[in-house]
Amino acid sequence: MKLTTRGRYAVMAMVDLAANAAFYADGDEARVSLPEISERQQISLSYLEQLFAKLRRAGLVTSTRGVGGGYSLARAAGDIRVADIIAAVNEDIKTTACDVQSGKGCLGRSGRCLTHDLWDELGRHIHIFLNAITLEDVVEKRVLGAASLPEAPDRDDLRRFM
User: Which of 79, 82, 66 has its CA nearest to residue 13?
Assistant: First the structure.
């Protein structure tokens, strides 16, 4: 499985933005500067600038130039899903070795490897999970246990269904 630093850093920066956004007395949201996020998250400022350009184009953040400028969330933190952030920075969570465009299978030729369906389904579960988690969930620490499943059936139960 491949989730690069681009996707991880974009999520880290967006969570930082959501967690550190302040509101003025009139209800307007204060902007957070990229140097502040860079320092807190230990992410290169130039890298953050590239990520935030993509996040802005995707409509996830808004920016203001000048004194007091910076970035703020374009929507409420509860309305921004982690999957949206990863997609905005062109991150592809890939769990198989198949190249869909080339028509080659997992092994570099036609046909799939024996475990293709397993890894492909895992990719779907990762997407479902990341689509179910919002920035607000991460900021409020409501992520642990989100992937919990009911008790797994034992092997005898599974054999009855085969």
Answer: 82
Task: Please give the Cα distance from 133 to 146 (Å, whole number).
Answer: 8
HEC readout, the chain: CECCHHHHHHHHHHHHHHHHCCECCCCCECCECHHHHHHHHCCCHHHHHHHHHHHHHCCCEEEECCCCCEEEECCCHHHCEHHHHHHHCCCCCECCCCECCCCECCCCCCCCCCCHHHHHHHHHHHHHHHHHCEHHHHHCCCCCCCCCCCCCCCHHHHHHCC
Question: Are 120 and 103 in contact, with CB atoms under 8 Å apart?
Answer: no
What end-to-end distance do the CA atoms of the chain give, in Å? 29
What value does the mean pLDDT of the chain take? 82
Q: Indicate the pLDDT class of residue 130, thresholds 50, 70 and 90.
A: very high
